[in-house]
Amino acid sequence: MEHTKENGRAALVVVSASLGTAGVFEALTLLATQDKTVRAASPWQDDPYDVVVSLAQFTVPMLALVIALRLLAWRVPGGADRARQTVRAAGAMTTLIGLTVVSEWAAVIAKTLAPGTWPSVLISGLVACSLLTAVSAVLLVRSRRRRDPSGRWRYDWLGDAVFVCRRIPVLRRWAGPDAAAWVRRRAMTVFVTLSTLAAAAITGAQAVGERWTDPLLTAWFLIVVATSNLAFCVISNAAAGFIARPPCSRRRRIAEASLVAGCIAISVATAFRDALWPAFGTGSLTSVPAVAALTLGAGLATSMVTALLLACFPRDSSRSGRRRSAAAAISLRRPGAHR
Questions:
Q1: pTM of the entire structure?
Q2: Cα(122)–Cα(116) distance, rounded to whole angstroms?
Q3: Tell me: the pLDDT tens digits for 104-134?
Q4: Would you say the C-alpha torsion 213, 216, 221, 226 has a positive or negative sign?
Q5: Whether the Cβ atoms of residue 55 and residue 62 lie closer than 8 Å to each other
Q6: 9, 107, 123, 165: which has the fewest Cβ within 10 Å?
Q7: CA 301, CA 237: separation in Å to the nearest integer?
Q8: Alpha-carbon Rg of the chain, whole angstroms?
Q9: For 26-60, what is each residue's pLDDT tens digit?
Q10: Helices 215-240 and 187-210: crossing angle, nearest 10°?
Q11: Looking at residue 336, what DSSP letter applies?
Q12: What distance in Å separates the CA atoms of residue 61 and residue 58, rounded to the nearest whole number?
C-alpha cells in the first residue's frame, strides 16, 4: 500500500510538470499563430512546419484537459492503473510538444529570420519551451523505469468519467455501466464523431477568418483536419487507455490500422505537398483540386497498401494470447463498485 501511494505521488509530480510544460507551450503557440503581426514574423508560419504546429495547437490542450479532469478522481480506487495511464497520456502529450519543438527549430535553422522584435521573442519562448520539455521528458523516463509493468489494467478513463458524472445530479441518469459498455463497444464510432465535430468547428473558424468562398477548399480542409484528429484519437487511446475496447476480429483490426495509416499519410502529404508535387505534375501547386487529389490520393494509396500488407501476414500463436489479454482488459470494475 505504501509503495502504491509513493508511486501515485511520483506520478502526480510527473503529470503536474507535463501540464505546466503544456500550458507554456500552448500560450506561446497561440501567440505565434493567432496574432497576425506575430505570425507574419514567425519562422514556422509555412508548411511543413505549420502542419505540425497546427496539429499540436489543438491536440495538446485536449490531452491536457482530460488529464486535468482525471485528477478529480485521483484518490478513488484504482490508483495504480490511474497513475500509469495518466503518466502515459502525459508522455503522449510531451511527445507531441517535443515533435513540434523539433519542427520549430528546423524552421529556425532552414529560414532567414525576419528583422524585428517578435522573432527574438519567439526564439526565446522556443528556448524556454525546449528546456521545459526536456525536463518533463526526463521525469517521464524516470517514472517509466519505476513502474511495475506486470499487472493488467482493471480501470480506464471512461470508468472514472462515469464515476464523476454519477456524482452530478444532471448527468446521473445518463452515466452508468450500460452507457460505458455502449461506448466501449462503439469506440471507433465515438472517435469518428468527435473528430468530425472538432474538425467542423475548426474548419468553420478557419473559413470565416480567412474568408473562404471555395466549397472544395473548405471540404478538403475539413477532411484533412478530421483525419488527423481521428489518427490522434486512435493512437492516443492505444497509448493511454482512455477507453478499453473489447476484442475484435482480425478483419476489423486490419481495417482500422489501414484507416489510421491513411489518415497519417494525408497529414504528411499535406505538410510536404510542395515537395511531392514535382513527382506527379509540373509547375507550382496552386490548384485546389490538385492539392486534394495529391493529399487524399496519398491517404487512399497508403491505406490500401497497409491493408494488403497486413492481410498477407500469417496468423501466429500469439493472437490467442493477445485476445485473452484484451478480454481481461475490458473486465473493468463498474463505477458503482468504487467506495
A1: 0.84
A2: 11
A3: 999 999 987 878 899 999 999 999 999 999 9
A4: positive
A5: no
A6: 9
A7: 25
A8: 22
A9: 999 999 998 989 999 999 999 899 999 999 999 99
A10: 140
A11: G
A12: 6
